[in-house]
Input
Amino acid sequence: MTATLDQVYQRLFLAYGHQHWWPGKTPFEVMVGAVLVQNTAWKNVERAIANLRDRDLLCPRALYQLPVEELAELIRPAGYYRIKARRLHNLLKMVAERYDSSLETMFQSDLDTLREELLSVNGVGPETADSILLYAAGMPTFVVDTYTQRVFARHGWIDFDAGYHEIKEYFESGLPRDPHQYNEYHALLVRVGHLHCRKTPNCDGCPLAELLPDGGPRQPEF
DNA sequence: GACCAGGCACATC
DNA sequence: GATGTGCATGGT
Output
């Protein structure tokens, strides 16, 4: 990579500025959003969270006590609502049983231990776990998503078939261990992804266009 | 109407 | 271990 990870970050920040992530009012709301946003547009998640807020259900104990079928109906706008209701319930069950439904207590655990606990919940994968750790708990763990993979692979900086852990290590080993920068960086990657790096790339006006390899964006080999 | 969105688990080979 | 598929609503 000719540009450093920090230079890429600076370009994105210069172009877009602060992203104010995560778009949630409380750590618990962030955690709920992290499950609901799986493979889903954020706009749909907002509706689901609004339904929960209207019923005063945005706290760990109340939401855990709600029957899963009722939870499913409330989060319906977020899509995959039946499976997400189960996933959310699984997560709330873990928080209730291990931490007495207290996020404050939960976030006193060390990062690696808590990450493993989150990953042990059925329905919480690496991106959801890291989103909770970074955006709800403020812990220094880099969040990788499809846009991260796409943007960096199209620039030839990583392989198209690089796995989650490999990409995460790539960022964490190339940047200072700073949760604020991890926060902003991931948000900026989602922003540039939305604007320029959907399934069909649109590199016109992209702040990273000058950094593309000769011949334009790379494509996966087959 | 087709395509896409800030994943994840599970089946099958 | 790699690859394919189901899950679902709402915006473009």
Remarks:
- The radius of gyration of chain A is 18 Å.
